[in-house]
Design brief:
Elements (H helix, E strand, L loop, with lengths): L2 H17 L5 H13 L17 E2 L5 E5 L7 H4 L7 H13 L19 E5 L12 H17 L5 E5 L1 H13 L16 E4 L2 E6 L4 H4 L6 H15 L2
Parallel strand pairs: 2-3, 2-4, 4-6
Antiparallel strand pairs: 1-3, 5-6
Helix pairs in contact: 1-5, 4-8, 5-6
Length: 233
Amino acid sequence: MTPVSSTRSALRSLQDEIIACRQCVRLVRWREDVATEKVKRFAQEEYWGKPVPGFGDPNARLLLVGLAPAAHGGNRTGRVFTGDNSGLWLYRALFRAGFANQAESIHRRDGMKLTDCYVTATLRCAPPANKPTPAEIAKCKPFLLSEIRLLKKVCVIVGLGKIGFENALRAFRDAGMIDFERMPTFSHGVVHRLGKYAFVGSFHPSQQNTFTGRLTESMFDAVFRKAKRLLVP
């Protein structure tokens, strides 16, 4: 078995483990209630209603870490950052930067493929009001730790939003890959180099940021151009 196929197999096993998780009673109840009740615009669709695993290239050098699946996005489609406005922004930007083969992802079997990029989240279940508790984040952390240990070529990490950024840093520190005493400061476009890794901050492409103009497409594109430059040896 080649190193890439071995990593792909290990990631697939980890994804199966994530999908089967029922550790957090509050999150299990919420994600399943949402999947049953649905919203009017998706009333005819079958919701995923389970934890959402990471997605992308097992050979990736670029890792994206967000907060959590959206109730009617990833919790509906089964793929992280898919089926909502945040996902529309993200995959358009990844397509323009050359990391994705198409500009839109609407469900987990839509042909989307990522090259040199892997997308994951701090939390695998949609939390009520998009606000997970510290205990829920802690229970989910082993999944992120497992991913970063398996994705051995990752060297650039983009944190989507402050929570994604800080939890990515904590995960790499807990995995023994970096060390810091004070949490590096988050801001849009910031770069912190720690050991062989570069951590890049980005505003999250949530409607709260995109509708208000706090995050524009040109600002988002600039993050991925910067990430791409950082990948060059």
